[in-house]
Write a structure and sequence with these properties.
- The protein is about 65% helix and about 0% strand.
- With about 80 residues, the protein is an all-alpha fold.
- The radius of gyration is 30 Å and the shape is elongated.
- About 0% of the residues are buried.
């Protein structure tokens, strides 16, 4: 009929392949994490943190928020 299949040997081989895959995935995940924040060749690094506002922009935000809170106090959602 054909060669006898040794199930236990197949299981051992599959577990060995699984372990290699788990290690390869872990390595790729580490590389992906370590690449975050590092711009690739030709890319610009993005600025992190809050954007600073000029006096004019702060004034506009202040007026907008005063209007928003006045409307909230009156019970009118904006």
């Amino acid at each position: 009929m054909g060669a006898a299949v040794n199930v236990e040997e197949l299981i051992r081989e599959l577990y060995a392949q699984k372990e290699k895959l788990v290690q390869a995935i872990a390595l790729l995940e580490e590389l992906a994490v370590s690449r975050q924040g590092v711009p690739r060749l030709g890319e610009r690094a993005e600025r992190r943190g809050r954007k600073s506002m000029g006096a004019d922009e702060r004034r506009q935000v202040s007026l907008r928020m005063k209007k928003y809170w006045a409307a909230r106090r009156k019970g009118h959602p904006t």
